[in-house]
Design a protein that fits this description.
This protein has 182 residues and is α/β, with parallel strands linked by helices. Helix content is 41%, strand content 15%. It has one domain: Thiamin diphosphate (ThDP)-binding fold, Pyr/PP domains (Rossmann fold, 3-Layer(aba) Sandwich), CATH 3.40.50. The chain has a 6-stranded parallel β-sheet with strand order 2-1-3-4-6-5, with helices on both faces. Helix 1 packs across helix 2 and helix 3 packs parallel to helix 4.
């Protein structure tokens, strides 16, 4: 596009998506995802760009709880949304998950780019990164880590099944071993 213009809802890509980002986006699309809500994060950009290439609507929102509300509305309308954010944003999304999505059985799949874990250099990310699995567990949200490309297909399929068929919120944790920076 001329002058670095971009279509609404599509992230600006500074580099080509990594192979694992393309594979994850393709697995989400193959699993029936119809719309994505996300809070911008450079590690998620390749996923969002690929979803856009596949003509799935992607919606960038400013806050994580807005993503949960957006996805919940789509779920109530019979669609299959996915929410993508950094693990540090799960704290912002807690109330919308605990008081709305979970008790009403909306079954939202979450994709969390893990911060504050292996190799983290930003001390402000460490407490929430360490707490994320326990916080999800306390809410009854099962979380499954992806550390290599070989995990993507099975984990994504399983999380989408938990969300869409069992109507239980479930999370994919994108671990640092995948690469793609912070």
């Amino acid at each position: 596009m001329a002058n670095k213009e971009r279509a609404p809802g599509k992230p600006i890509m500074l580099s080509a998506p990594l192979a694992w980002q393309v594979e994850l986006a393709d697995a989400l699309a193959a699993g029936g995802v119809t719309v994505a809500a996300f809070v911008p994060d450079s590690r998620l950009d390749g996923i969002m760009a690929r979803l856009g290439e596949r003509e799935l609507p992607v919606r960038s929102l400013a806050r994580e709880e807005e993503c949960i509300a957006f996805a919940a509305g789509h779920r109530l309308a019979g669609l299959k949304p996915v929410v993508l954010m950094q693990s540090s944003g799960i704290g912002n999304a807690l109330n919308s998950l605990a008081s709305f999505a979970i008790p009403y059985g909306l079954g939202l799949p979450l994709v969390l780019s893990m911060r504050g874990t292996l190799g983290e250099g930003n001390p402000s990310q460490v407490p929430m990164g360490r707490a994320t699995p326990a916080v999800l567990d306390a809410l009854g949200i099962q979380a499954f880590s992806i550390r290599s490309e070989s995990d993507i297909a099975d984990v994504t399929k399983g999380v989408l099944s938990l969300a869409y068929e069992a109507q239980a919120c479930a999370a994919i944790l994108l671990e640092p071993q995948l690469g793609g920076g912070r």
